């Protein structure tokens, strides 16, 4: 809500009048309040509640709130500007001025570095160069000047506003680095000053960290930079990256000794990533190899006392010193040997021999022998090696690590290492360890060890063919018998790397087909009996599962006959199958509906079943009717396979949808003879005796249970269950009844194949193709527990692989381009029992009065007629609206609740409109029993509650909004909903459409489905037909059709009362 144009007038004795315009989204209202002693004593507002005895309206309260805020602001103390704010303004202004001046002045100022290399580290000295150079005496103050744009004078006639733009482009990266490094230094010093109160000294040089050295070199690489050496001399060095051009000299000294010396002018320091070496003309950033080889050598030799830049080596240590240190320099080409023959000092090479033997079953011993020349020793007993032997310690260590990797124990005498009674360790040694020892030294293997073989895994191959609806699967494992295959798979399932054969050999268990075979046997629940013969018979519906499992896992030869390939191809892409819908349906089917029909037809061709799980409103009924129509067309034309097959199909649905199925048949397939099985038992029995005269029979789940013996006498062409979630509990009588009916092909229609538990999916497939998902006990072990409780992704993927071809689900978002922006559907119900009797009596009474008395239809009697017509409409909605003690059923209420349950379970949001607020209360009570949350908006709902509910409906998970047509038909934005239900038809189509537009309006991103609930053979159906007739005329002229009672003739009134 907003307040505008507020004026305040003060009168005698402190009285105040406040006036304004209040806007709340529904209108603008003139509002006045009168205040005395800080309280409202009178008010007026032009809104409907502005003069209510209940108290001041929301507009007056909002105006009073705005007035008090204004008074608080006017009476508040004056605010003074903080010194920090003035400093900010000054500094930002100076910075902007410096930037402008920097843009106007050509960047001629150079920032000149000087690198100082000393024993304590590497530091940086900097100068400013204009016409001459000026030393920067405080780098910290310089950095602050650049940050703030301060003008600094360096000498007579040379001053400028500091900023990055004032420096040459080449200088700016270095200036930026100095600013960051000095900033870090000052932060560090500030932290110290908190404890010591010491002032930060002027920073005439900047000590560079290792990472700062790397950054400095990256900036100046390729340039000549002034450098101060360790001895205080200044020179210019060129900074280069690569291998340093230095020489390391080796020469003989004294008796049996060597001296290693580096040049006097050599300077060395380390960065974070690289070593830096400088001679008289260059400073090198060493490459990775030089950094690795030189860092320890140079840093150690430079750390010698007195700066001698040399080290001496006794002859006894020369072999190892050369092998570990000098050899790298020699290979790099920087070692000057001075005629020294390094081969003379090369140490004797370490020789290794490993002897493997097996003296008894389950045991392998190894005797390791290491030697330098003629001296041999055990690697775990090296304390007796003579000191004159130059040992290869790293290689000895590598050998010891290899031994301990494969052998944990030594025999008592210590000479042999042993593996005993440990199959895993023996397998690891045989499969990989002996080869590793062979890479390290000489290996000797006794015959007893050679006899322990590690065999390659068996080559698995599969072959499949199709015969009389069954898959014949042959498994071959290079001649292995069934018991061996089962044992190998058992070991592999335990993630073992080998299987110990009866003859003692080890069979390597790698994935070469074993994983595929294991998944196949587990996925199809195959046991020893199935594998025993080598030829396994599987139902044809396993074709896709078998193909996808082998294809995804690979590593296995797989031969298939042409019929198997055809089945797999059709299951993968049914659109390639050349089925065409009958001409009668072809003109109304959308492309995705044609694809659904082809899919069902393809499954039927192989006598498979399937779940058509399209979203609500996408035409599952139409696709099924097309299937039945196509079957009749083929039967009549003589093209159906197997001419003796049954001709009658059975459709089972909730009782509330029987007449809706009948209506859909009459619209989309009027040539089909359809029997709707309803009414008392005697009437049903008579109808069922004539069942063979029809193409399709429609009954309910409840009536099927009662009439099951009649149905079990027949075999149906198709058995179709609508709202298949009705059999989600396999133990119910409904589930048992539909599974007891005999049919050639079965299909299930549902928008929610799984609502709460995976057992629901099992029950539906147990109806479609018994045994497809095994017994429930097996299904629970294989899928339900691993997926639900253990979140096993592999089990979930295995289930998907198995059921994928037999479930077709399209959401509205998937086929949005084929759908109209607003999809309208009429859902029919039919009154039964007490409801039917009450309606017929009331309708006949009114019709009789119109027939007998012509004056009844005149203006004077129209009010009485309207009341009677309203009573008839209420009887259609629910007789309890007219009779308080009515305890029978309401067919429309059952249809509505079924529709709401399906929509809510599928994740939709629904608006339900009714003209009768009391009907909304009845629906609300029923939703409470079903556990579905909802909002209720009627004429008695306050504006505050109304707005709160509308906003919440957009945000939360409440699926249903019950709305009175008059209270919520206009002025609401409810685009969160994508389903609209009109519970009772309205005379005025435009008013109905206005209600629909609460969801179908700008901002709606989903396709909207509108359901009209109509009672068949009642005034509701007749009103709908009259509206459609007038709409067709209106579409040709101006606007939408509207039924007006005032304009209806006596004949028209009599007609809409026809039963």
From TrEMBL:
Domain Helicase ATP-binding: start-end pairs: 601-771
Keyword Transport listed: no
One Pfam family per UniProt: SNF2-rel_dom
Keywords associated with the record: ATP-binding, Helicase, Hydrolase, Metal-binding, Nucleotide-binding, Zinc, Zinc-finger
Sequence ranges assigned to domain SWIM-type in this UniProt record: 29-68
UniProt organism field: Clostridium symbiosum
Name the record gives this protein: ATP-dependent helicase HepA
Domain annotation Helicase C-terminal: ranges: 895-1054
Domain of life: Bacteria
PANTHER family found in the cross-reference section: SNF2/RAD54 HELICASE FAMILY (PTHR10799)
UniProt-recorded Gene Ontology molecular function terms: ATP binding; helicase activity; hydrolase activity; zinc ion binding
């Amino acid at each position: 809500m907003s307040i505008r144009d507020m004026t305040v007038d003060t009168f005698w004795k402190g009285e105040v009048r406040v006036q304004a315009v209040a806007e709340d989204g529904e209108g603008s209202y003139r509002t006045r309040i009168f205040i005395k002693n800080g309280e409202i004593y009178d008010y007026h507002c032009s809104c409907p509640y502005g003069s209510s005895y209940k108290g001041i309206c929301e507009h007056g309260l909002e105006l009073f709130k705005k007035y008090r805020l204004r008074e608080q602001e006017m009476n508040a103390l004056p605010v003074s500007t903080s010194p920090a704010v003035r400093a900010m303004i000054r500094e930002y202004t100076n910075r902007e001025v410096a930037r402008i001046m920097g843009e106007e002045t050509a960047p001629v100022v150079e920032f000149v570095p000087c690198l100082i290399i000393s024993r304590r580290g590497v530091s940086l000295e900097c100068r400013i160069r204009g016409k001459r150079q000026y030393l920067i005496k405080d780098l910290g103050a310089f950095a602050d000047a650049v940050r703030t744009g301060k003008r600094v004078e360096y000498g007579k006639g040379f001053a400028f506003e500091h900023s990055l733009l004032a420096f040459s482009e080449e200088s700016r990266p270095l200036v930026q680095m100095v600013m960051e490094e000095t900033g870090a230094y000052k932060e560090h010093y500030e932290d110290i000053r908190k404890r010591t109160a010491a002032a930060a000294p002027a920073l005439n040089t900047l000590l560079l960290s290792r990472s700062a050295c790397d950054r400095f070199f990256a900036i100046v690489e390729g340039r000549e930079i002034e450098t101060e050496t360790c001895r205080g001399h200044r020179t210019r060095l060129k900074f280069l990256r690569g291998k340093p051009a230095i020489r390391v000299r080796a020469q003989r000294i004294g008796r049996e000794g060597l001296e290693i010396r580096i040049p006097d002018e050599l300077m060395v320091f380390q960065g974070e990533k690289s070593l830096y070496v400088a001679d008289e003309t260059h400073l090198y950033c060493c490459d990775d190899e030089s950094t690795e080889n030189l860092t320890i050598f140079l840093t150690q030799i430079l750390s010698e006392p007195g700066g001698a830049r040399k080290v001496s080596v006794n002859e006894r240590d020369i072999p190892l010193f050369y092998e570990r240190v000098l050899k790298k320099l020699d290979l790099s080409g920087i070692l000057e040997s001075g005629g020294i023959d390094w081969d003379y000092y090369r140490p004797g090479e370490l020789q290794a021999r490993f002897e493997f033997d097996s003296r008894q079953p389950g045991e392998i011993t190894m005797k390791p022998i290491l030697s330098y020349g003629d001296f041999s020793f055990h690697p775990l007993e090296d304390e007796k090696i003579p000191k004159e032997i130059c040992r290869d310690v790293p290689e000895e260590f590598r050998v010891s690590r290899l031994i301990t990797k494969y052998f944990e124990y030594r025999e008592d005498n210590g000479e042999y290492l042993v593996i005993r009674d440990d199959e895993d360790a023996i397998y690891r040694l045989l499969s990989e360890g002996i080869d590793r020892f062979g890479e390290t030294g000489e290996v000797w293997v006794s015959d007893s060890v050679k006899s322990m073989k590690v065999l390659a895994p068996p080559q698995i191959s599969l072959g499949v063919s199709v015969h009389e609806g069954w898959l014949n699967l042959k498994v071959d494992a290079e001649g292995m018998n069934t018991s061996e295959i089962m044992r190998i798979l058992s070991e592999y399932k335990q993630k073992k790397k080998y299987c110990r054969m009866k003859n003692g050999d080890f069979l390597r268990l790698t994935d070469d087909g074993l994983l595929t075979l294991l998944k196949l046997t587990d996925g199809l629940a195959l046991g020893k009996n199935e594998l025993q013969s080598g030829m396994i018979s599987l139902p044809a519906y396993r074709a896709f599962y078998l193909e996808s499992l082998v294809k995804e896992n690979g590593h296995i030869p797989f031969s298939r006959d042409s019929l198997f390939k055809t089945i797999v191809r059709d299951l993968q892409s049914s659109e390639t199958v050349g089925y065409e819908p009958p001409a009668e349906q072809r003109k109304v089917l959308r492309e995705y509906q044609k694809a659904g029909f082809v899919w069902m037809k393809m499954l039927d061709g192989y006598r498979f079943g399937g779940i058509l799980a399209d979203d609500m409103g996408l035409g599952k009924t139409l696709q099924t009717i097309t299937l039945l129509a196509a079957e009749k067309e083929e039967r009549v034309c003589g093209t159906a396979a197997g001419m003796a097959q049954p001709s009658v199909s059975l459709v089972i649905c909730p009782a509330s949808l029987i007449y809706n199925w009948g209506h859909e048949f009459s619209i989309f397939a009027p040539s089909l003879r359809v029997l709707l099985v309803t009414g008392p038992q005697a009437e049903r029995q008579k109808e069922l005796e004539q069942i063979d005269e029809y193409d399709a029979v429609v009954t309910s789940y409840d009536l099927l249970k009662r009439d099951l013996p009649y149905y079990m006498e027949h075999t149906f062409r198709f058995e179709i269950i609508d709202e298949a979630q009705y059999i989600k509990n396999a133990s119910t009588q409904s589930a048992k009844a539909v599974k007891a009916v005999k049919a050639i092909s079965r299909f299930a229609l549902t928008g929610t194949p799984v609502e709460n538990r995976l057992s629901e999916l099992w029950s539906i497939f147990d109806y479609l193709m018994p045994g497809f998902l095994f017994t429930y006990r097996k299904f629970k072990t294989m899928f339900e527990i691993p997926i639900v409780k253990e979140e096993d992704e592999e089990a979930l993927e295995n289930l998907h692989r198995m059921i994928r071809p037999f479930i077709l689900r399209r959401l509205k978002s998937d086929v949005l381009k084929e759908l109209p922006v607003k999809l309208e559907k009429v859902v029919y119900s039919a009154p039964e029992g007490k409801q039917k009797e009450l309606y017929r009596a009331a309708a006949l009474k009114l019709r009789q009065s119109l027939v007998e008395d012509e004056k009844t239809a005149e203006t004077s009697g129209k009010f009485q007629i309207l009341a009677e017509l309203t009573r008839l409409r209420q009887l259609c909605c629910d007789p309890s609206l007219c009779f308080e003690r009515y305890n029978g059923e309401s067919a429309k209420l059952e249809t509505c609740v079924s529709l709401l349950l399906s929509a809510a379970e599928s994740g939709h949001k629904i608006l339900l409109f009714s003209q009768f607020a009391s009907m909304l209360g009845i629906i609300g009570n029923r939703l409470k029993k079903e556990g579905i949350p909802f909002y209720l908006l009627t004429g008695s709902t306050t504006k505050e509650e109304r707005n709160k509910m509308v906003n919440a409906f957009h945000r939360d998970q409440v699926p249903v909004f019950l709305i009175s047509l008059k209270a919520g038909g206009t002025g609401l934005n409810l685009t969160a909903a994508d389903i609209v239900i009109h519970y009772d038809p309205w005379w005025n189509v435009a008013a109905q459409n206005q209600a629909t537009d609460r969801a179908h309006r700008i901002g709606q991103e989903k396709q909207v489905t509108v359901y009209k609930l109509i009672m068949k053979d009642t005034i509701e159906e007749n009103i709908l037909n009259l509206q459609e007739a007038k709409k067709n005329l209106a579409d040709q002229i101006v606007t939408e059709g509207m039924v007006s009672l005032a304009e209806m003739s006596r004949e028209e009134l009599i007609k809409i009362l026809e039963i």
